[in-house]
Automatic annotation (TrEMBL):
Chain intervals for the UniProt region annotation (Disordered): 19-41
Protein name: DUF2796 domain-containing protein
Coiled-coil intervals, chain numbering: none
Record keyword rRNA-binding present: no
Segment forming the signal sequence: 1-18
Record's keyword terms, sorted: Signal
Bias kind Basic and acidic residues: ranges: 19-37
Amino acid sequence: MRRLLLCLPLLALPYAQAADHDHDKHDHDHQHEHAHGEQGSLGAHEHGVATLDLVLEDGILQIDLLSPAMNLLGFEHQPNSDADRLKVAELRGALAKPEELFGLPQECNLQKHDLASPLFDAPASKTHGPDGEHQGHNDVLASYRFDCSKAKALASLDFSPLFSRYPGTESIQVQLVGPNGQQGVELSAKNPRVNF
C-alpha cells in the first residue's frame, strides 16, 4: 500500500499539467466556441480521447476514468430536454456497473465507486448563452476500487465493452502502476487490452 501512496502523485501529474495548460489548445470537431474555464472541466479535454489511471497493488485495483462527456453521451451541454436527461441517467447507471465495462475477473469485487460530473446534478434550467450556443466543457470522472485479492492472477484488463458501448471514445491514454512498475499505454477499439 505504501507503493500505491508513493505513486499517486505521479498519476495526478497529468491532471495538474492539464489544468495549467492553455485552454486554446483544445481539439474540437465542432464549429462553435466554448466559454473556457466554465464549470465542468476536470482536466485536459479532447473529444474522442479519455484518460485512465490504473493502480494494482496487494490485490487492490484502483481505476480512475476521465472522459469528455461528448465521448460518452454525444453532447456535453447541460441536459435541457427529457431525451438529454434520459441519456445522462443511463450513463450514470452504466458507470455504476463497471463489471459490464471492464473485463474484470468475477473474483474482483467492487468495494466502492464515485461518479462526478456537473451533468449528473444539472438543474433543469436554461443552459445556453444569448446566441444559443452551449457553454463550458463537461467531463465525467468515474473512480472505482476493487478487491481482486481472490483472483488467481490479474494479468490484464479488456476494455472492449467500453469501446463498444461508447464508440465516441476513440482512444484511452492509460497510466498504469502495477507489479511490473509504471507504464503508459494507448488503448483503442482495435487494441483494447492492457497488461499488468
